[in-house]
Amino acid sequence: MKLFSSYPLGDIELNNRLVMAPMTRCRALGNTANPLMGKYYRQRANAGLIITEGTSPSPNGLGYARIPGLFNQEQVKAWQQVTDAVHKAGGKIFIQLMHTGRVSHKINLPEGATVLAPSAVPFSGDMWTDEKGLLPCSEPRAMTAEEIKTTIGEYVQSAKLAIEAGFDGVELHSANGYLANQFLDPATNQRQDDYGGSMKKRNRFVLEIAQAVAQEIGATKTGIRISPHGSFNDMSDYPELTEQYGLLATGLGALQLAYLHLVDHSALGQAKPLAATTEKVRNNFRSAGGGAIILSGGYEKHRAEVDLQSGAADLIAFGRPFISNPDLAERMDQDAELTVPDDSSFYLAGEEGYTDYPILAGN
Ligand SMILES: Cc1cc2nc3c(=O)[nH]c(=O)nc-3n(C[C@H](O)[C@H](O)[C@H](O)COP(=O)(O)O)c2cc1C
User: Cα 196 to the chain's mean position, in Å?
Assistant: First the structure.
C-alpha cells in the first residue's frame, strides 16, 4: 500500500505517509515542554511525520491554558528532549507555530503580553482558564503596523529556535481561526492599510511570514496549514474565498514550501470545503513550485489509500486516531482494531488520556 511507502519531504525521508496531525493537549505547564510530552511524542514516532501541537512563537499568542511556547532558551532546551526522544525512536517531527490572536484570554497570557488581532473584533466564544474556569474571550486590540512587523519577526525567531531545538521543520498554522487565519478573513480583518481591504492585502501577513521563515530556515523545512471554508472559531465564508485562497496557494507554492496541509473538518460537524476551492488550491500550489499536499480530517485507512492512489494527496494526517492509538501506523498496517479516543481527557493536565493508551504487544 502507498500509505506504508516512504516519502521524501524536503531534505528528509519519511518512513511512511501517515502524518500525526497537530493537536493541542494542554500538558505544557508553564508554557514549556516537559518529559511527559517527550514520552507522548516518542510513543507516536511510528508516524512518518509528527506535527506537534500548536506552539506559540510569542508571549502574545499563548491564548489557551497550558499550551507550549517557543521563544526563549528554556523552551528550546525542553523541546530538545522531545525531538531527541522522537529521533531516537526513528521518527521525524515538525513543530506547529500557532499564535492564537483573538482566541485568547488575558489570564492565560504571561505578564506584559497583550491580546492582539488584525482588528478589534472580539471572538464570541469562551476560553478555559485554570484560575477562573470558562470566561468570555478577551477583547483584542488591533495590531499597529509596528506590531505586525514585530510579530512576523517573532515567527522567524521561533522558527530559528525550532531548528536549534532539533525539529526537522516548522508548520505555520494559518488555519482554524487563529491569528494568521484572522488576517485572511474579511470578517476579522477590517484593516484598510497594507494588510487589509482586498484579497491580496489580506493574504499579505501569511505570505510575508512564510517568506521570512523560509528564508531563515529553508523552504524545504517550512510547511503551512490552511482551512478554506472552515468555520471553527467563527471564521466566515464569503464569495471571493475560492479566488483568495487560489492566490494564496500560488504565492505559497512560489516560495517552494515543503508542503501545504489542508484541513477538512466536516468530520467534526463543519461544512465540507468546496471541491472547487480544494482543487484550485492544490493545483495552484503544485504548479507554482510547491512540495507535498497533506490532506486531513476524518481519515481512516481505506480513504487514505484512495486519496494517495489518486494523487489528491502525498501524505495523510490523522488526528484523533493518533490520540488513542500510539502505534497507529503499525495497527493500520496489521489491520488491528483501533482504540476509540476519550474526548473528556483531550485537554486535561497529566498522563490520563495522554500517555496511557494501550500499545499492542510486539509494536
Ligand atoms: C484535541 C484536539 C486538538 C487539536 N489541536 C489542533 C492544533 O493545535 N492545531 C491544529 O492545526 N489543529 C488542531 N486540531 C485539529 C486536528 O489537527 C485535525 O485536523 C482534526 O482532529 C481532524 O482530523 P481527525 O478527524 O483525523 O481527528 C485538534 C484536534 C483535536 C481533536
Answer: 23
pLDDT, tens digit (0-9, with 9 covering 90-100), for 310-332: 999 999 999 999 999 999 999 99
Query: 0.90 exceeded by the pTM?
Result: yes
Specify the ligand 1 atom closest to the Cα of 171.
11
Over range 169-188, report the average pLDDT: 98
- Give per-residue pLDDT as tens, 112-137: 999 999 999 999 999 999 999 999 99
Structural domains in the chain plus CATH codes: 2-345 (3.20.20.70)
Residues forming the active site: 178
- Could you say which DSSP state residue 256 is in? T
Kindly state the DSSP code that residue 240 receives in the 8-state scheme.
Answer: T
Q: Cell triple for residue 262?
A: 489542508
Q: Scanning the structure block, which residue is given the C-alpha cell 472552515?
A: 230
Angle between the 35-43 and 73-88 helix axes, to the nearest 10 degrees? 30
- Minimum CA distance residue for ligand 1 atom 4: 23
**What span, in angstroms and rounded, lies between the C-alpha atoms of 324 and 295?**
20
- 54 Cα to the center of ligand 1, angstroms: 10
Mean pLDDT confidence for 283-302: 98
Q: Is the pLDDT of residue 62 over 90?
A: yes
* Ligand 1: lining residues by beta carbon, under 6 Å: 21-24, 53-54, 96, 98, 173, 175-176, 225, 263, 265, 267-268, 296-299, 318-321, 346
Count the alpha carbons within 13 Å of 318 in the hemisphere toward its beta carbon: 29
